[in-house]
## 1
Amino acid sequence: MIIRYPEYTKDFNWTVLQSDSYTYAKYKKAIGAHRRVIFLKEHTILFALAGNKTIFLGDEVLHVNPSSIVILKRGLYGMTEVVPDGFEYEALLLFFPDSMLQSFLRQHQLQPDKIIADPQSYVMLPTSDLLHSFREQYMLFFQNRAENMEAILQLKIQEAFLLLLAGEHRDAVLNLFHGITHAQPANIEYIVNTHLLQPLTLGELAQLSGRSLASFKRDFQQYFNCSPKKWINEKRLAHARMLLLNDDMNVSEVALACGFENVPHFIKIFKQEFGDTPHVLRAKKATI
């Protein structure tokens, strides 16, 4: 199962700071070792408060602890693992949209001294006394909701930007910020094939490619001469059929391995595509 950050919640949740239209922060606590697959729906600043976490981003591995801070671009898909060391893992996640960062960079007239053509999708840097003080103060808002909370949270994220740019890693942070605000759409074939079997929605694939959903659908149709939903389902179902005929995984495991989180839906569209349910297909193979 994929965990998506941030998630908007209609009911009050003390671990989330949000307005009617945007989620600004989340306090995360985990006990015991575990692994999760995550997808970032917004740009994220990660402050580890206690414990250790490992983040796997393709071939790259990040070891996060309270002495480090990570800035992550929206659209990242990866695996996280809480490392068992006798401590609970706690973290503060701050989220920000393109528009907020663009406004900040314009206001302060900030531009990298040297623009990197293909900046990384994250920056990891050591914390400082000022950033440590910032995160401790920010945590107070989860238990003490103030009036004009949204305005305060917008100012706090700008404060975080300024503090991140005040240290020795200023150039790396500014290049990441510039990369976020000047990102070009990624190769659509590469994005789709790379994430084909991952349980991502069309909207999330669009985010990964740096496009709006409408632009993603249009560009996909032009490139593949087929709608993205039809093309992706056909490829996933073909892979599922291969696994059902050649692997010992059960139907639920096959569904998840092919990007389908909803098993009944997987069974329904599998039958529509091949004329048999996954169970019937296997039964027929067994009688041959």
## 2
Amino acid sequence: MKSISSLPYALEYRYYNFPADFPIFALLGSRWVLPDVDITFLHFHNCLEIGYCYEGNGYLLVEDRKLDFSSGDISIIPQNTVHRSTSTKGTQSWWEYLYIDMERLLKNFFPGGFPQQEFFLLQSLGENNIIHKEHNPFLHTLVRNILEELRLEKKHYQECVYGLCLSLFVELIRESSPQSTGSFQLSRLYLTIMPAISYIDNNYMFPIKIQKLAELCKISLTHFRRLFQASMHTSPLEYLNRVRIHRSCILLHNTEKSILDISLEVGFASISSYNRQFQRVMGMSPLHWRNNSRSMHKKNYTYSVFDF
């Protein structure tokens, strides 16, 4: 994720609660209209978001890139990717959205552990966050079929959606696979540092030395820092802090644990260090974020979908 200090926008983290028995939900219907608002903040969330544009045009900001969209296009936003979209001035666009907890979904098909390399490639789509219908009509059809199954809820629709989403996962991996020398080199960088990414994601709550991460990747510390920066656009320490902040947001939103307990649980050595990093990354204190997230929870349409 880009350092928010390099982005001229406020940042919001959105945590989506999925049904306990089904790691997929959709925002359906004509009410999901995207207005032509000025973008003043970006957000990221805890799942994969796929949008389908039925009408209109505009642009999508994805971290440091601006991508145009039009009717028939699909947007692909991996977990923890900073983004926001808006319609062309004086117009509106109509979307439907699909949200998938890919880790939970894939565990149903790979009980021994889902394919980490492919999953990591999915998190790094490169320039493929907007996919035009003519570029990949099969992916276009898959997304439309998933949305339609969730809309109609016919008998065994969940089983059907599971199968379609597995096909979707494979097709997205194909989209993110290297198509040129440059993208091939970038993918090699990702695969080289993937042991460090996996280790951080599973051990963020413990003290982690950057030297240990370099050893896991079987490269020198200097080379590791250079590869990590080139592939993730951030330093290993910054990535570790962002993972800890992300996990702390989940605890702030969903539990009554004290901010001190949360700071220690996610791996910060002191509450002062946690408060400083949280303020820098999120633009507000943990207490302010907790209060805001809970007030937004009551009125945010992304949660009301479960009441329909």
## 3
Amino acid sequence: MSSRFLSSRTLDRRGFFVLAGAAALATACSPRSQDAAATTSETVRMTGDGFDVTVPTRPTRVVVMEGRGDLEFALLAGYPIIATGNTFQPGARPAGQFDGLLDANTEVIGGPDGPAAEEIAALSPDLIVMRANGWRLDWYGNEQLTKIAPVLPVEVNEPNFEQYTVDQFSAIGLVDTVQPRLDEYHRTINDAAAVTNGRRIALITSEPVAKGYVIVWTNYLGNAVATDMGFTVLQNNPQDEEGNYRLSVENLNQIADAEFIFHQTTDPTQIDGIAAWQNLPAVAAGRSAVLDPQLNNGLVITATSFANRLIDVVRKAD
């Protein structure tokens, strides 16, 4: 058994720790045939910024709240997901990086604010998975949810997503399950070197442009992925705790050096009509591209999809 299951480790921005109980450690080290017989009486303690929870190591009926990074965690873990919310597109099956990954029998429940407690209770889950941010901000009513089933808050929107992946999945004895996805990510970014070659890019959110500003990314998952790929990301700052800053439309020339601009929005027409945007060299040259907002939080599946989006845009431009 690897010693990593026994150690508590601190991560950069959220101080995430994992503490595995004896039953969970036994499960983590047992053969797959024994795993199949594991029950929810085997538990693991997960602690971090604002939470300290004990959850089953091998749940059998899992509900996911938001349907983005929390859904990715549950999919990577191989949890039997009976239902998921989709706050991004309520009622629709989560798509994008999740195409083909969700079981056909998984229900999509809830609205733009996530599933209601009554909906969840009716499904009799033995585990509820949500983003740790949602737990810290009590988006869904933590007290009410914990009366239904144990809740697992997961860190899924950090630049250091690889370390969070390894630590969290080590805690539940499933790090080997996600290793193929990590290997795929590294193959993707290594293959990207031929097209990235230090090219300057800007990563922004253009959604709030009607309010007179855009949001420049300085330390998001996307920054980490683009840097791994070999891009030079304008305004990149791995030490920035905020992860972004507002840039007024009048000052868009601050990203004029970008050879490519990638902007997150649900409606690109909002910024297309802005003269200062059209005057940026990358935009004028047809080297701006929209980023799906679903790619703004997640783990290694999202990171790989993000990388593939950037590669696709650059290759087509060349």
